[in-house]
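Handout, section B. The chain below has 255 residues.
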Amino acid sequence: MLTLMKQEYYKTFKQNRLYIWLGLSVIFPLAIMGIFKSQRGAGSITDLGHATFYVYLVGIIITALSVSQEFSFGTIRPLLSRRFSRGMIFTSKLLLNLSIYITLFIGAFIGTMIGQLIFAPKFDFSERVSYAGNGWQTMGITVIDTLFQMIFVAALVLLITNLVKSSGAAIGLGVVMIVGTPILSSISMLLINMAPILKWNPFNIFIGMAAYGQASPSMIKSMVHMSQGTVVIAYLVYILAMYVIAYLIFKKRSV
């Protein structure tokens, strides 16, 4: 597995120029805070200089390309010829993607801290800034919440990428789920009004997880019509189901 992971990182650095994406994760919050004076407050700083959007977008792109390029470039053939199983290859991609997400967050955090020291030196992280708590707590909740959302969308992206054999369609869907949350919320509410059982639709679960830690349990329940704990359980079930289906399709794809 170690050899396989080394090859995955090599391919990502060579094919997708990962070092550029990582460098931009540091620059993004610096640029936002440096250019826009209005983005030097608590809301921007605890959102990593709004770099959570950048991390989200890049993470989805890398996730889709990690599978589609394996087949379009034909690099899966030499891996299989070396007796790596498809299960090992798929697992290595999940580990690769997760490590990239974390590294992107670290880069965004570094950029945010530099930006805060330069452009908002008086900001006090110990002061309460949101429902989640002080600056550090709010930032931590924001990062964890975004990571959970990314894992959910990444599962859907992997599923679509394997199903339609196109990274473009999967990336498009991922972008819609990033920027179209109000639309998803409206669709979800429409479905629930049609039939209460449709509260279990994936959009509703995604919205519930997006609000986790950002809103009170009672507010989340009024939004998605289920308790916070139920949302988490449904989220885990959806995650498991989507990754299993994505793997089964990946396992059957011809090379």
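Note. The two ends are 21 Å apart (CA to CA). Compare this with the example in section A.
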